[in-house]
Specification:
The chain is of the alpha/beta class. It has a single domain (5-380), classed as 3-Layer(aba) Sandwich (Rossmann fold). The chain has helices at residues 5-13, 36-47, 66-73, 85-95, 109-114, 116-137, 172-192, 220-229, 248-265, 287-297, 322-328, 336-352, 357-374; strands at 27-31, 51-56, 74-79, 99-102, 142-146, 201-206, 208-210, 234-236, 242-247, 274-277, 284-286, 302-304. The strands form 3 sheets. It has a 7-stranded parallel sheet, with helices on both faces. A 3-stranded mixed sheet has the order 7-9-11. A two-stranded parallel sheet has the order 8-12. The chain is globular. The two termini are 36 Å apart.
Length: 387
C-alpha cells in the first residue's frame, strides 16, 4: 500500500529541497507533456514548486499518465502541433517561460518506418520551430532539448557512446534525432551564442526508459503489461538485444539538474552542449532479461517470436554518462532490479485501483529523491551550484 499524500509530503520534507529549490516559482513549459516522460517530468516540476505549462498533441495512448495528473499539475496546457511554427510562437509568447523542456516528438522506431515524413517533420522541424520561436521572441529562457541514445551512428563495437561520437542512425527515427541534435547545434552557434537577449541551450540523450504509465505500442514493458493483464504469453521479437535500461526518474533527474545549471550559469558555461544520461553497467541487459525480471514480480510466461516484418534494430546500445557524472555530479540512483520492481508496482497498483494513482506516483518520486539524498547526490543534497 502507498503512503498517502501527507506521508509523501513528510518524506520529501525530510530531505533538502532538490536542485537547491531552483524550480520554486519558475514558469516552466514542457512540450510533449501528454507523453510518458513528459507527464513524469511535469509532475515532478509541480512537486518542486514550478508553475507548469504544457504544449502537445492529445495523449498518444489510452490509458495514459497525463490524464491521471492533468487536473493538479498544469497551470494551463495547450493543444499544439510543434510542426506549426505559428502555434508554437503563440504558446511560448503567452507563457514566457523561464525554462523550456522540449520533449514533443514521434518517439517510436517502428512507427518511423510507417510514417517517415511525419517523424522527420515532428522531430526535426518541431525542434527548429521551438528554437526559432524563442529567437523571434527574444526570450532569455534556458532551453533543454531531449533527444535519445539512438542519435548516434552506433557501430555496435561494445564501447559506450560518448557525446563526441558521430551522429547518425540506420532508421528514420534515429536519423531524425541526430538531425535534431544538429539543428540545436546550428541554432546555438548561429543565433543563441551571438545574441545577448537569448539564453543557453543544451541537449539530453537518455537510454531505454521504463516506468509506470507508458502504454506505447512496440515497447517491451507496455507489451509485457498488456499481455500479463490479459493473462496471455508475452511475445518477444528480439530477446538477445542489449539496451541500457533505466527508470524514467533517472533521466528526469538528469534533465532537471542540467536545466537548472544551464539557467544559472548561462551561455559561457560548459553546460551548453550535449549530455548523456544512462544507467550503470548493471543495467546493460538483454530484452529477455528485462522480461524475466518483470515475471519475478508478475508471474506469466514469454516466447521468442520473430517479427512478421524484418526491420533493422540495433543489437547493442550503450551510453557513457561520465560527462554528466563529472560535470553535473549526476549518477543513477536505482539499480536495474529497483527500476523494474518500481515499474511493475505502478502497473499493478493501476490495475487493482486500490489507491488514487496521483498519490502513488508522487510517492515514487519522493522515494527516488530520498534514495538520491541517502547516496549524497549533489542535486538531492543542495550541493549543486544552482540558486
Amino acid at each position: 500500500m502507498g503512503l498517502g499524500q501527507g506521508a509523501v509530503e513528510d518524506l520529501v520534507s525530510r530531505v533538502s529541497a532538490p536542485f537547491n529549490n531552483f524550480y520554486a516559482g519558475k514558469r516552466v513549459l514542457v512540450t510533449g507533456h501528454t507523453g510518458f516522460k513528459g507527464a513524469w517530468l511535469s509532475l515532478w516540476l509541480k512537486e518542486l514548486g514550478a508553475v507548469v505549462f504544457g504544449a502537445s498533441l492529445l495523449p498518444p495512448t489510452q490509458p495514459n499518465l497525463y490524464e491521471l495528473i492533468a487536473e493538479e499539475v498544469f497551470e494551463h496546457d495547450a493543444l499544439c502541433d510543434v510542426r506549426d511554427l505559428n502555434a508554437v510562437l503563440k504558446v511560448i509568447e503567452t507563457v514566457r517561460p523561464d525554462v523550456i523542456f522540449h520533449l514533443a516528438a514521434q518517439p517510436l522506431v517502428r512507427r518511423s518506418y510507417a510514417e517517415p515524413l511525419e517523424t522527420l517533420q515532428t522531430n526535426v522541424l518541431g525542434t527548429a520551430n521551438v528554437l526559432e520561436a524563442v529567437r523571434r521572441l527574444g526570450l532569455p529562457c534556458a532551453v533543454l532539448v531531449v533527444t535519445t541514445d539512438k542519435c548516434y551512428e552506433n557501430p555496435e563495437t561494445g564501447r559506450a557512446q560518448i557525446e563526441t561520437d558521430p551522429l547518425g542512425g540506420h532508421d528514420i527515427y534515429s536519423a531524425s534525432k541526430a538531425c535534431a541534435e544538429l539543428v540545436v547545434q546550428s541554432w546555438r552557434k548561429s543565433f543563441f551564442q551571438t545574441d545577448a537577449k537569448l539564453g543557453p541551450v543544451a541537449t539530453a540523450r537518455a537510454g531505454n526508459v521504463i516506468g509506470g504509465g507508458d502504454y506505447a505500442a512496440d515497447r517491451i514493458v507496455p507489451d509485457c503489461i498488456r499481455a500479463l493483464m490479459s493473462k496471455q504469453p508475452i511475445h518477444v521479437r528480439n530477446p538477445a538485444a542489449v539496451r541500457p535500461w533505466q527508470h524514467v526518474l533517472e533521466c528526469c533527474s538528469g534533465y532537471l539538474c542540467l536545466a537548472a545549471r544551464l539557467a544559472c550559469e548561462g551561455k559561457s558555461s560548459p553546460m551548453n552542449g550535449a549530455f548523456n544520461f544512462g544507467p550503470d553497467e548493471d543495467a546493460r541487459r538483454t530484452v529477455g532479461e528485462v522480461v524475466t525480471e518483470i515475471l519475478r514480480h508478475w508471474p506469466g510466461e514469454f516466447h521468442s517470436t520473430p517479427p512478421t516484418v524484418a526491420l533493422h534494430e540495433a543489437k547493442l546500445l550503450w551510453l557513457s554518462a561520465e560527462k554528466a557524472k563529472q560535470q553535473l555530479g549526476w549518477r543513477p540512483v536505482w539499480s536495474f532490479a529497483d527500476a523494474v520492481s518500481r515499474t511493475v508496482a505502478w502497473y499493478q497498483q493501476h490495475e487493482t485501483g486500490r489507491e488514487e494513482m496521483m498519490d502513488f506516483t508522487r510517492e515514487q518520486i519522493a522515494a527516488y529523491v530520498a534514495d538520491a539524498h541517502t547516496k549524497r547526490l549533489d542535486w538531492a543534497s543542495n550541493g549543486a551550484e544552482v540558486r
